[in-house]
Specification:
With about 425 residues, the protein is α+β, with helices and mostly antiparallel strands. The protein folds into 3 domains: about 55 residues, OB fold (Dihydrolipoamide Acetyltransferase, E2P); about 190 residues, Vaccinia Virus protein VP39 (Rossmann fold); about 120 residues, Beta Barrel (OB fold (Dihydrolipoamide Acetyltransferase, E2P)). It contains 10 helices and 21 strands. Strand 18, helix 9 and strand 19 form a beta-alpha-beta unit. Helix 1 crosses helix 10 and helix 9 packs parallel to helix 10.
Length: about 425
């Protein structure tokens, strides 16, 4: 059914929202103030015709916008975009009754993302590599990407050819590509079992095209150059397909906020530490205890620490903080705590932290909803929320990072 709709606001996921007699209808790629014809199925609409155009609409910079589902708001004017993205953090706090002035959004430049995950599938027409169409399992074959670093985009033909060599399945699979100081780190996941002849062919291609490392399902196939990421001036080689912050400038903005808040704390606990983005920078001024559930990430952190100079002691602990959070008694040994969990947040860990008397806490999150929940727990436990800073690490998407800084007066021991 095709109907005429007036878009009244931009929803949390970047869809235009229209109010109808049947309830809200969400129409991707539309903006507040626009009148559109849309084909409706339940609460979702597909834009069929733009009748009245919003003054906030701009020309999208990418030719794939509207077809590729990776970006949702490339058509939104810059200042309105920043207000909407900041509003994601504001709304998350409001729902949990967390009162704090949210700072201005730290912006993200186009063509700056150093870690991307492509989807791929072998088709009758050849190897398709790109991103999923919005709310679809279809993969849009791309020739450009305005969020990714130019060296990743320039490598698309090589990545497509390498995927054709590696692919041993009819199903969709994923390719994680990270731009490092020594070249591209390429990790395949669920691409199928590769024969020895196929491995040799792939390895020769990687060496010839000067790709730093190729791994398949976590196993290194060939590593002509050890991939290197710098956390400050500390060189770290992340594990194959390992997590790092997607945009270097966003990581640095988060680190600046966290390290300034920790000040000259003698001992800091870094929870969900990953490969050491915070730990190895904090160690310039503080002893750090890094806690992480991924053994490979901890090993990368440890190697980075051992080959660095001028750092205070960094200890590591492999621990599943979801199953076994650090207790408040353990936390009381530290002057500051940093935690940067996955999107699910750190509810159980926050409950323990709320019972502690750690004076300084920095909470980093990529999910405003779970961040607000965790902050509510900490505030109810006696912490004062000093600031919340949203950081745009995921350009033109509904996702936003945030750094929240908290304080509590330490009890006398």
């Amino acid at each position: 059914m095709t109907v005429r709709l007036e878009i009244t606001r931009l929803g949390a996921q970047g869809d235009g929202v229209a109010e109808t007699e049947r309830g809200q209808v969400f129409v991707p790629f539309t903006l507040p103030g626009e009148v559109v014809n849309a084909a409706i199925e339940r609460e979702r609409g597909t834009l069929m015709a733009l009748i009245e155009r919003s003054a906030l609409r701009v020309e999208p910079p990418c030719r794939h916008f509207g077809e590729c589902g990776g970006c949702v708001v490339q058509h939104l004017e810059e200042s309105a975009y920043r207000d909407w993205k900041r509003g994601r953090a504001v709304e998350g706090l409001r729902r949990e009754r967390v009162e704090c002035e949210v700072g201005a959004l730290v912006p993200c430049a186009a063509d700056s993302r150093r870690r991307v995950v492509f989807s791929a599938r072998r088709s009758d027409a050849g190897l398709v590599l790109g991103y999923h169409r919005m709310q679809s399992s279809d993969i849009v074959d791309i020739s450009e990407c305005r969020i990714a670093l130019p060296e990743i985009v320039a490598a698309l033909p090589n990545l497509r050819e390498l995927a054709g060599i590696v692919c041993q399945t009819t199903k969709a699979f994923h390719i994680s590509v990270t731009a490092t100081a020594t070249g591209l780190d390429v990790a395949f996941l669920d691409s199928g079992a590769l024969s020895e002849a196929g491995r040799r062919l792939a390895a020769n291609f990687v060496i010839r095209e000067k790709i730093a490392r190729l791994s398949i399902d976590g196993e290194i196939v060939v590593e002509p150059q050890r991939p290197v990421i710098h956390f400050g001036d500390v060189a770290v080689t992340p594990p194959p397909g390992g997590f790092i912050q997607a945009v270097k400038s966003a990581e640095e903005a988060m680190v600046d906020l966290v390290t300034a808040h920790m000040g000259k704390s003698k001992k800091v606990a870094d929870l969900f530490a990953g490969s050491g983005a915070f730990s190895l920078r904090l160690a310039r001024r503080s002893e750090v205890h890094a806690v992480e559930g991924d053994a490979a990430a901890l090993a990368a952190l440890d190697r980075g620490f051992r080959f660095a100079t001028g750092l205070k002691r960094v200890t590591q602990e492999k621990r599943d903080l979801f199953r076994r959070p650090m207790t408040f008694k353990e936390l009381n040994l530290f002057d500051g705590v940093v935690f940067d969990p996955p999107r699910a947040g750190a509810e159980d860990q926050s409950i323990q932290l709320a019972r502690s008397d750690v004076p300084l806490v920095a909470a980093v999150s990529c999910n405003p909803t779970t961040l607000a929940r965790d902050l509510r727990i900490l505030i109810d436990g006696g912490y004062t929320l000093k600031s919340v800073t949203p950081i745009d690490q995921f350009l033109w998407s509904p996702h936003v990072e945030a750094v929240a800084l908290l304080e509590k007066k330490r009890k006398r021991r």
